[in-house]
Amino acid sequence: MFSPQGPSLRELAVQALSSVEHGYDLLAPKFDRTPFRTSDVLLDATADALRPLGPFGSGLDVCCGTGAGMRVLEPLCQGRTTGVDFSAGMLAQAHASHPEVEWVQADVRSLPFTEAFDLAVTFGALGHFLPAERPALFAGVYRALRPGGLLAFPIGGPPPITSFWYWALLGFDAAMRVRNAVWRPPFVMYYRTCPLQAMRDDLTAAGFTVTTPPLTGLGPRKDGAPRYRLVLARKPS
């Protein structure tokens, strides 16, 4: 499915009926050949937007998966780079691609770092956290950053109600809620639980100063709104 080297429909079904951790362990060897991997276009646009704010010292990729975020961190960070994820399978793939990086297996809702990083990023992972779990996630990132440190991540604009994607994402989230109501263990992945204002509110409550400039490198939508914004959450100096 997606490509000849990607997962089959049966493999995706088995993953979807597993826990989040075990599902990603199963998907890890073929993850980079699916649309779930953050695109290089989005990674490069993020790096371009962050470059004028650097250089940075050490960098952290939160929910690093197979390590795609190192395309952003390694050129921007002069110190060590670290990725953290709870899936051993994803980390094994990340280590194979980037053996020079420090890879840490941990639950990112209780990150094991204190004032260790200057830049933290995350890509495509926030839908794996229920809204009630985000305060612990953002508090852990806040603790992991040095004073003046920055958390950055892109967030897509909401599709208009008349678009195909509005209804596709609504249908996916509805199907996921039904799946989690009738099947255990749950697989938490929702596309509509991370609106921009909710992200701003949760980050501000964690102590960050938040700005959300448009990612101009990706251009506007047909209605003139930005396709993506870059959330920049700064820990006070």
TrEMBL record:
<dbReference type="GO" id="GO:0032259">
    <property type="term" value="P:methylation"/>
</dbReference>
<dbReference type="InterPro" id="IPR029063">
    <property type="entry name" value="SAM-dependent_MTases_sf"/>
</dbReference>
<protein>
    <submittedName>
        <fullName>Class I SAM-dependent methyltransferase</fullName>
    </submittedName>
</protein>
<dbReference type="GO" id="GO:0008168">
    <property type="term" value="F:methyltransferase activity"/>
</dbReference>
<keyword id="KW-0808">Transferase</keyword>
<dbReference type="Pfam" id="PF13649">
    <property type="entry name" value="Methyltransf_25"/>
</dbReference>
<dbReference type="InterPro" id="IPR041698">
    <property type="entry name" value="Methyltransf_25"/>
</dbReference>
<feature type="domain" description="Methyltransferase">
    <location>
        <begin position="60"/>
        <end position="149"/>
    </location>
</feature>
<keyword id="KW-0489">Methyltransferase</keyword>
